[in-house]
Amino acid sequence: MAESALADPTFAPLLAPALDSVLHIEARAYDHPWTRTHFLDALASGYEAQMLVRDGAVLGYFVAMQGVGEAHLLNITVAPEHQGQGHARTLMAALKRWAMQVAAQRIWLEVRVSNTRAIRLYEGLGFERVNVRKDYYPGLGPAREDALVMYCPLDESEHP
Ligand SMILES: CC(C)(COP(=O)(O)OP(=O)(O)OC[C@H]1O[C@@H](n2cnc3c(N)ncnc32)[C@H](O)[C@@H]1OP(=O)(O)O)[C@@H](O)C(=O)NCCC(=O)NCCS
């Protein structure tokens, strides 16, 4: 069935009972996926975690941390079979709404320099490249991979 014929996706809090579905996505989306412990630690720390669901299926999710006057995106993932349908844009819009609600002035994130899909997504949403963190991520072999640090200022006039 075409995705356009399906019900609209809705947001739900990402909580422990959803972790089996989330970890199944995570394992297929990344060479170095987050573990159950990463997610449980994030939830225990009170980080913001939302998922996009449709008919009981998890389409994607994000996890973000609040800092002083800023928000930090830690994880955004769309299930491989649902990519390319605009779900990441929907998740990023929810991230931005939450960041505004907690009075963040900007959103930070790191992304692998090789992740051109994600970089294109972020740049299309107004994120700017600010720095490169050398050898930030594990690689497939012994060599590590650099992270691009990006940030997006949030417009004061958009704050609730
Ligand atoms: C990166 C990711 C979140 C994008 O999710 P998605 O739902 O496919 O993205 P969307 O359909 O919302 O597309 C949003 C934008 O992403 C970019 N994009 C999406 N698919 C792309 C592709 N195949 N090639 C290049 N850019 C692409 C485009 O800029 C697109 O905007 P456009 O449709 O106006 O061209 C998804 O590919 C993913 O989960 N990847 C694995 C996990 C990951 O890398 N997360 C980011 C870690 S920092």
Can you put this structure into words, describing what you see?
With 160 residues, the chain is α+β, with helices and mostly antiparallel strands. It has one domain: 3-Layer(aba) Sandwich (Aminopeptidase). It is 28% helix and 36% strand. It is built from four helices and seven strands; from the N terminus they run βααβββαβαββ. Strands 1-2-3-4-5-7-6 form a seven-stranded mixed β-sheet, sandwiched between helices. A hairpin with a 2-residue loop joins strand 2 and strand 3. The longest helix has 15 residues. It starts with 9 loop residues before the first strand and ends in a 7-residue tail after the last strand. The model has no long low-confidence stretch (mean pLDDT 94). The site of coenzyme A has 19 residues, from strand 4, helix 3 and helix 4.
Tag the structure with descriptive keywords.
single chain; 160 residues; alpha+beta; Aminopeptidase; seven-stranded mixed beta sheet; 4 helices; 7 strands; binds coenzyme A
The name of the CATH topology is Aminopeptidase
The first-level CATH class name? Alpha Beta
The dominant shape is: globular
CATH arch. level architecture: 3-Layer(aba) Sandwich
Strand content: 35-45%
The percentage helix is 25-40%
Average of per-residue pLDDT values = 94
Low-pLDDT residue intervals, each spanning 5 or more residues: none
Please report the distance between the alpha carbons of the first and last residues. 38 Å
Q: So how many helices?
A: 4
Structural category:
alpha+beta
Rg, Cα atoms, Å: 16 Å
SSE pattern: EHHEEEHEHEE
Largest sheet: 7 strands, mixed
Number of domain modules: 1
CATH level-4 homologous superfamily? Gcn5-related N-acetyltransferase (GNAT)
Across the major sheet, the strand order is: 1-2-3-4-5-7-6
DSSP strand tally: 7
Bound molecules: coenzyme A
